Amino acid sequence: MTATIHIKDEKPFADIPFNVTITGLEINQCYKIEMQLDDYYCINAPLCLSPKLPWKSSAVFYSDQLGEINLANSKAISGSYQGISEMGLFFNARPIQTKNVKLPKQLEEVPLYDKFYVTIRIFQNKTLIREKTVERYYLNKDISYKDIYQQKFQGRLFFQPAQQKPAVIVLSGSDGRIEKAQNIAQLLANYGFTTLAIAYFGLDGLASHLEKIPLEIIEEARKYLVQSPYVTTDKIGIYGRSKGAEFALASQAYHPNCQAIALNSPSNIIYEGIKGKFPSKNSSWTINNQELPYQAFRYKDLFLKLLFKKELPINPKSKISIEKIAAPILLLTSQKDEVWRAKAASRELMDSYKGKEIEYNLYQETGHMLTVAYQPNQRYNNNWKGLLDDSVDSWQKTIAFFNKHLKNDKKISNE
């Protein structure tokens, strides 16, 4: 018999699970399966990590009575993970080394990172007996993109030509650039949305640091989308994660113009800006060229928090007022957020949003890096199955939220 590798999936997108089955093996024999990812951009990896580095994982299995190994029901006995998991090899892949790259300063120089390659290899007694490579996509081939240069921001628009779709503005975290926002925007676009990934600092023509960023960026982005031929003008949502969630909420507090607000690892407080690696002594955000009140960072406060494990007093003026907001809100929060008080922020938002539609999801394993489904998360070394499940559930909740409030549709479906 000849070993054959079968890779089966519903659709070859990065947020969809795929199954690996190997047939034609000797019965009840030990094999090693290796997975390699090439040209792979991982949203959970450090921003400067080179996407040209291969990622790898491997695990040891025994073939069954039919001479088969099926990752959906075969147990990994050793290697990168143990146990049964269809996506265990993928989720536990790691870069083979650390190599940083210099980030582009021009928007047009930022790669699209729209696809990557998955290679499966099977070994018996260290001998390679079969391998197979397939492509997987962040972006459907039918979706186009173009770079957007506006007065206050730069962005990348993902759209389906000659079609109008509801739109989602996507904001990444404290990196402020386009890469991570693009990763999320591409995947959302596959579900029937026109998406606009925004860079709000860090590229030529934008602010150099995360300080005094104008909230009017969101209003400018929305006006651009309203005038776009690819957008259903009365259906525009906003997605922000980490610092982007703070940005999204603050913008809607002053200009409530979006029909659905998804906040991943949120803050309901405006924090001090960041200049390089240090507090900037300025607010993160401005409105009408005026800095918004902010919670100052003090090393003394951080030391006391770490020492006594207590939340520190908050400057009440730094809290974001949500009185003007009426749109549905989705909160995706980790019990173990190691960066800031996302759980407390979510509770306070729930309490102050009574009578309006708000959905709160609290996850037990993932920390602050709660991103898209199935992507390896090397930031945490705890329960990897819990991390994987959190990533899947939070991502599915995000898609269902935008389907419901921008399409009036609760189903999750790649278009």
Question: Care to describe what's here?
Answer:
By secondary structure, the protein is of the alpha/beta class. Helices cover 20% and strands 30% of the residues. The chain is built from 7 helices and 22 strands. The strands form 5 sheets. Strands 10-11-13-12-15-16-21-22 form an 8-stranded mixed sheet, sandwiched between helices. The two termini are 39 Å apart.
Short description:
With 415 residues, this protein is an alpha/beta fold. The protein has seven helices and 22 strands.
Indicate the topology:
Blueprint: E1 4-9, E2 18-23, E3 30-38, E4 55-62, E5 69-70, E6 78-79, H1 88-91, E7 94-95, E8 115-124, E9 127-137, E10 144-149, E11 154-159, E12 165-171, H2 179-189, E13 194-199, E14 213-214, H3 216-226, E15 231-241, H4 243-254, E16 260-264, E17 272-275, E18 278-283, E19 285-287, E20 290-291, H5 299-308, E21 329-334, H6 342-352, E22 358-363, H7 384-406
Parallel strand pairs: 12-13, 12-15, 14-19, 15-16, 16-21, 21-22
Antiparallel strand pairs: 1-2, 2-5, 3-4, 3-8, 4-6, 4-7, 8-9, 10-11, 11-13, 17-18, 19-20
